[in-house]
Amino acid sequence: MAKQVSKTYGSALFEVALENHTLDKTLEEVLFVKQSFLENEDLSKLLLHPNIEKEEKIKVIENIYKGKISDELTGLMVMMVTKGHQRDFVSVFDYVIDAIKEEKKIGVARITSAVVLSAEQQKKIEQKLLDTTKYEKIEGIYRVDPSLIGGLVIRIQDTVVDSSLKTQIANLSKTLVG
Q1: CB 148 within 8 A of CB 138
Q2: What is the number of other CB atoms lying within 10 angstroms of the CB of residue 105?
Q3: Residue 59 CB: number of other CB atoms within 10 A?
Q4: Per-residue confidence of the chain (178 residues) as pLDDT tens digits?
């Protein structure tokens, strides 16, 4: 259900931004609002509290964000509160962020390695991804997982390339046993 909510509301905001040629502005605003929710636990608690009326929650959103972000984003948040979907704010924001980055041909690559990669190694990986994907820019998010033993695991959206020694050993083991 949460995924459907994210897609419904997120694609509505994305389509408005696309139509109004405000992708950059919308991306900036959504990142700002998402960060404010992640940093302010009390705001999330207030919006999720069952004993606080929807009207009060809407006033809080309008008091905090009106004039700081677009009417479209404020309106989306108000609509979500009205429909009781405020729990899904962050997932909707993530959907919009991903959709805008995809439209702007920015790939977000989650790269896991067994050891810390140097800046030069990161640059080479990102260049290889630029050469082999449709993206014009790559945002690399790097993580270290020593259990990989060696190699890399690269995830861009739903695509995973796993060249880790851990996986190669597991596959070899399956082949030998099977």
Answers
A1: no
A2: 12
A3: 12
A4: 668 989 999 999 999 999 999 999 999 999 999 999 999 999 999 999 999 999 999 999 999 999 999 999 999 999 999 999 999 999 999 999 999 999 999 999 999 999 999 999 999 999 999 999 999 999 999 999 999 999 899 999 889 988 888 888 888 888 888 6
**98 phi/psi in degrees, rounded to 5:** -65, -45
Compute the distance between CA of residue 47 and CA of residue 138 in angstroms, rounded to an integer. 35
SS (H, E, C) the chain: CHHHHHHHHHHHHHHHHHHCCCHHHHHHHHHHHHHHHHHCHHHHHHHHCCCCCHHHHHHHHHHHHECCECHHHHHHHHHHHHCCCHHHHHHHHHHHHHHHHHHCCEEEEEEEECCCCCHHHHHHHHHHHHHHCCCCEEEEEEEECHHHCCCEEEEECCEEEECCHHHHHHHHHHHHHC
Name the pTM for this structure: 0.84
Direct distance between the N- and C-terminal alpha carbons of the chain, in angstroms, rounded to an integer: 39
